[in-house]
Amino acid sequence: MLSKFEVEQCSLSKLREFHERVLSFSDRFVKIHCKHYVSESITSRVVLGLFLSFFLAMACTYIFVFPRYQPAVRTYRVHQSGDLVPKCNVFYGNWIPDESYPLYNASQCPFAERGFDCVANGRRDRGYQKWRWKPKNCEIPRFNVHEILGKLRGKRIAFVGDSLSRTQWESLICILMQGVQDKRRDVYEINGNKITKRIRFLGVWFSSYNLRIDYYRSVFLVQPGSAPRHAPKRVKSTIRLDKMDDMSKEWIDSDFLIFNSGHWWTPTKLFDMGCYFQTGRSLKLGMGITTAFRTALKTWATWVETSVNRNRTRVFFRTFESSHWIGRNRNSCKVTRLPWLKTKGKDRSRISDTIIDVVKKMRAPVTVLHVTPMGAFRSDAHVGTWSDNKSIADCSHWCLPGVPDTWNEILLSMMLSKDGME
Predict the structure, then answer these.
(1) How many domains in the chain?
(2) Most buried residue, 43, 175, 189, 348, by most Cβ within 10 Å?
């Protein structure tokens, strides 16, 4: 069976062969006529006839050859099993205005943390809520919330990570609540807890759909611990890079696991606080943060490969979320009114690169949600000073509704498809 390229080459060869015949015919035609009329002057009628014959031959070439030739057209769409077309990478594209957004009102969602509800905290402009992510070569599927809830019936979704994971967890609950009629009776936190920054576990139950969506606070994914005996005075605590978080046993019984980590892997939240790295009984005072993060991810990868049921559980890992701190010490936060037109280098991150590299080498299937590039444009969507603590500006977390909703639109499309999107 000929490939598309071979068919095109064959068509072009036929075209060239036919064209050569036409030119040969024209040449013989001219010679015959010239010989016949050599003793006569070439009249205007003969010249006109020659031109008409030539253009008639060319017209035949076009009519009979070109309709059979189809130019190579490279198509892009959401990947389906068995397709030979290129996959669509939904994480590269641009933001376009869309008045159909936002997807919900944070003030009417009891699970949207007050600190992320920027409008309730005094932000007057709402333009940041009305942007839709447009991948370069496809569209993120628009979904019906009732249909989504039906497909998620009886499932358990667990988010594991830092406060950015909690933001995505809150966003997903607020999105799905739009499909629930009696929100107060049918959607509730299973232990009656309020949404707080420090609580290590939160679980929301959609009773009508037997759907549970959990959040586990595990900022390093591996186990924090106290300083070992005889450690230097500057060591106040350690991160056990070779041991998973002691809550990890509770994550296993899930249909979907979504991980993130990165914002706590900084000198200010580690070394400046007297926190250093440890493997086994060995204290690694000279180990850098990038090396430690990779070591911790390898521990996580081994845990996924050996502890997670691949036949039931789909695993996702979200990359580093672009922050927009500025200044020499990156301690100044200025929220813009519009998204940046260029990423200004924010589309790359060593944390994200490490995540992608570790996942590529895993034996177990894990889907990377590479949100770093799309967030790089959104200097307009951070909490800034519109939080529950206006004295501290924030260019790391996102307002709700906002950017995390797009993460969840992509996540839902992947969760509910067999192969998803790349």
Answers:
(1) 2
(2) 175
C-alpha angle 168-174-180 in degrees, rounded to nearest 5: 145
Q: How far apart are the first and last CA of the chain?
A: 29
Q: The CATH number of the domain where 231 resides is what?
A: 3.40.50.1110
Q: What is the pLDDT of residues 25-73, one digit of tens each?
A: 445 544 444 444 434 444 445 445 555 555 555 554 444 433 333 322 2
Q: Give the CA angle between residues 346, 347, 349 to the nearest 5°.
A: 80
pLDDT in tens, 277-302: 999 999 999 999 999 999 999 999 99
Amino acid at 64: F
| CA angle 124–263–333, rounded 5-degree value | 35
Average pLDDT over residues 6-10: 42
186 & 296 share domain = yes
Q: Which domain holds residue 312?
A: 93-415
Q: What is the 3-state secondary structure (H, E, C) of 159-218?
A: EEECHHHHHHHHHHHHHHHHHCCCHHHHEEECCCCCCCCCCCEEEEEEHHHCEEEEEEEC
Q: Residues 98, 51: one domain?
A: no
The residue assigned the tokens 């200004």 is 344
293 and 179 fall within a common domain: yes
The yes-or-no answer on residue 33 being catalytic is no
Whether 20 has a pLDDT exceeding 60, the answer reads no
| Contact between residue 390 and residue 341 where contact means Cβ atoms under 8 Å apart | no
> pLDDT digits over 167-213, tens only?
999 999 999 999 999 999 999 999 999 888 889 999 999 999 999 99
User: Do 234 and 341 have their domain in common?
Assistant: yes
- Is-catalytic flag, 397? yes
Q: From the candidates 163, 208, 396, 417, give the one annotated as an active-site residue.
A: 163
Q: Which of 162, 380, 394, 405 is catalytic?
A: 394
Residue 6 burial (CB count, 10 A): 10
Assess whether 370 carries a catalytic annotation. Answer: no
